[in-house]
C-alpha cells in the first residue's frame, strides 16, 4: 500500500507565525500579560492552549478569561493572516508526492469552515484526499480529530503507513495515539529543543520531512 501523509496546516504548510504571534500578543493584553518576542513564544507555547495561558498567569484562566483570550486572538488573527502565505516550496512538494503515487490529506485545528476556502484559495484542494478542520471549541488536542480523520479515509490509507507532518509536539502525540508515524518541523510554533524530547524525527525543512516520510514507511 502507498504511503500517506497527513499534513498540518498552521505553522506547517501555512507560514502564519507572524500572525499567530501578533494575535497572541493581542490576547495577552486582555489579561495584563506583556508582549512576547517570537523566540519567547516558540520556547513557551504548548498544547492544549489553556495550559499555555496557565503558565503565563500562574493559574488556569477562568472561563470568562478564556473566552476573552480566544476572542481577542481570533479577531486579530483574522486580520493578520491575510498577509500570510504558504511555506516555501509547498506546491512543488505536494505535487511531487502525488506524482510519486502516494496520497496525502490535511488535518488542522483551524476551524473547518474557514480552513476549506483558505486551502482552496491557494489552489491546493485537489492535492488532498480529504481536508478536515476543527468543528468544536478551540484549545483542544489533535488526537481524537486524527482518529476520526483516518477513519473517514477508510481503506484508502493504512495508519501504519501514515506519517503526520506538523510543527507541534501535539501532532506527534496524536500520531502515536492513532497508530501512525510523525515527523516534526521546526519552522512553526515550537523550537527544536521543545520538539526533540517527543522522540520522533525533527527536521528544519518540509522537503526533509517528505523525504523522511517515504523512508519511515518504506
From TrEMBL:
InterPro entries: HAD-like_hydrolase_sf, HAD-like_sf, HAD_sf, PGP-like_dom2. SUPFAM superfamilies: HAD-like. It comes from Kitasatospora cathayae. This is Haloacid dehalogenase-like hydrolase. It comes from the Bacteria.
Amino acid at each position: 500500500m502507498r504511503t500517506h501523509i497527513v499534513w498540518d496546516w498552521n505553522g506547517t504548510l501555512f507560514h502564519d507565525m507572524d500572525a499567530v504571534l501578533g494575535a497572541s500578543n493581542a490576547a495577552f493584553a486582555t489579561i495584563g500579560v506583556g508582549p512576547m518576542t517570537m523566540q519567547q513564544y516558540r520556547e513557551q507555547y504548548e498544547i492544549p492552549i489553556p495550559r499555555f495561558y496557565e503558565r503565563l498567569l500562574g493559574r488556569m484562566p477562568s472561563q470568562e478569561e478564556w473566552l476573552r483570550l480566544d476572542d481577542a486572538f481570533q479577531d486579530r488573527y483574522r486580520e493578520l493572516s491575510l498577509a500570510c502565505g504558504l511555506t516555501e516550496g509547498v506546491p512543488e512538494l505536494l505535487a511531487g508526492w502525488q506524482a510519486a503515487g502516494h496520497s496525502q490529506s490535511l488535518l488542522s485545528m483551524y476551524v473547518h469552515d474557514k480552513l476549506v476556502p483558505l486551502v482552496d484559495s491557494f489552489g491546493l484542494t485537489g492535492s488532498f484526499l480529504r481536508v478536515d478542520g476543527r468543528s468544536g471549541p478551540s484549545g483542544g488536542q489533535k488526537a481524537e480529530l486524527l482518529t476520526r480523520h483516518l477513519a473517514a479515509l477508510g481503506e484508502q490509507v493504512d495508519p501504519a503507513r501514515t506519517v503526520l507532518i506538523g510543527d507541534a509536539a501535539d501532532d506527534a502525540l496524536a500520531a502515536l495515539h492513532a497508530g501512525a508515524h510523525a515527523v516534526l518541523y521546526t519552522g512553526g510554533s515550537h523550537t527544536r529543543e521543545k520538539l526533540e524530547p517527543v522522540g520522533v524525527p525533527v527536521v528544519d525543512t518540509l522537503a526533509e520531512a517528505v523525504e523522511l516520510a517515504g523512508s519511515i514507511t518504506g
